[in-house]
């Protein structure tokens, strides 16, 4: 399942370019949390944010967000919608968050990874082709997988695994057409040996030889 990180945020009153620049200079990231009932301006500690997401695919991480500065403090579930970074320094300039409901399904994409060494590659010399690297899925937030693993060990040359052949994790519905190909083993390509053709005498040379022979007669 997708990982969950805990993050604290403060409700932000600073708006406008000048005040936002000062906020960044203080080591804070301006952020906005979007939800069904509107949006909420926030600020998040830059170091805390970087440490929370270091080495993780941000779109597959749920955020257990504590919003302080409100009465009372609010606990929310969210995921990253967009991260704006400086083009030269990669410094994070702004973050957009999307509020989730724990009992409401989300639609997103996850990566698909083959597991095992296919018999068609191991003994048949075939090539494993992966025409589809992501699957569209629907699930509750806490059922969101980081990826979907597919066993390709028994796949032989000329055989394929389709979307309909895959059993998704519990609570996950795959939205792709069932006949889409996920993995297939293609036959090895054989190099054609060029045939040696007998060199033909140029027409002009042959005609000249025939003329010389006729003059000798």
Automatic annotation (TrEMBL):
Gene Ontology terms: biological process: translation
InterPro entries found in the cross-reference section: Rbsml_bL25/Gln-tRNA_synth_N, Ribosomal_bL25/Gln-tRNA_synth, Ribosomal_bL25_b-dom, Ribosomal_bL25_C, Ribosomal_bL25_long, Ribosomal_L25_dom, Ribosomal_uL5_bac-type
Domain Large ribosomal subunit protein bL25 L25: 7-97
Any one cellular-component term (Gene Ontology): cytosolic large ribosomal subunit
Keywords of the record: Ribonucleoprotein, Ribosomal protein, RNA-binding, rRNA-binding
Region (Disordered): 187-217
Family that this chain belongs to: Belongs to the bacterial ribosomal protein bL25 family. CTC subfamily.
Protein name: Large ribosomal subunit protein bL25
């Amino acid at each position: 399942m997708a990982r969950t990180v805990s993050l604290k945020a403060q409700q932000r009153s600073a708006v406008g370019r000048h005040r936002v620049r000062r906020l960044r200079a203080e080591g804070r990231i301006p952020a906005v949390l979007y939800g069904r009932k509107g949006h909420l301006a926030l600020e998040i500690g830059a170091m805390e944010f970087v440490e929370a997401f270091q080495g993780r695919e941000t779109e597959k991480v749920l955020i257990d967000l504590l919003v302080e500065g409100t009465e009372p403090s609010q606990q929310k579930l969210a995921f990253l919608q967009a991260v704006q970074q400086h083009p030269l320094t990669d410094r994070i300039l702004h973050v957009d968050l999307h509020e989730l409901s724990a009992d409401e399904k989300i639609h997103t994409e996850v990566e698909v990874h083959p597991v095992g060494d296919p018999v068609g590659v191991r003994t048949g010399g075939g090539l494993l082709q992966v025409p589809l690297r992501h699957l569209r899925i629907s699930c509750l937030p806490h059922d969101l997988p980081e990826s979907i693993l597919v066993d390709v060990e028994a796949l032989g040359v000329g055989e394929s695994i389709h979307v309909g052949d895959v059993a998704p994790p519990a609570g996950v519905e795959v939205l792709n057409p069932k006949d889409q190909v996920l993995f297939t083993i293609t036959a090895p390509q054989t190099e054609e040996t060029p045939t040696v053709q007998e060199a033909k005498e140029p027409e002009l040379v042959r005609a000249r030889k025939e003329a010389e022979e006729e003059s000798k007669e």
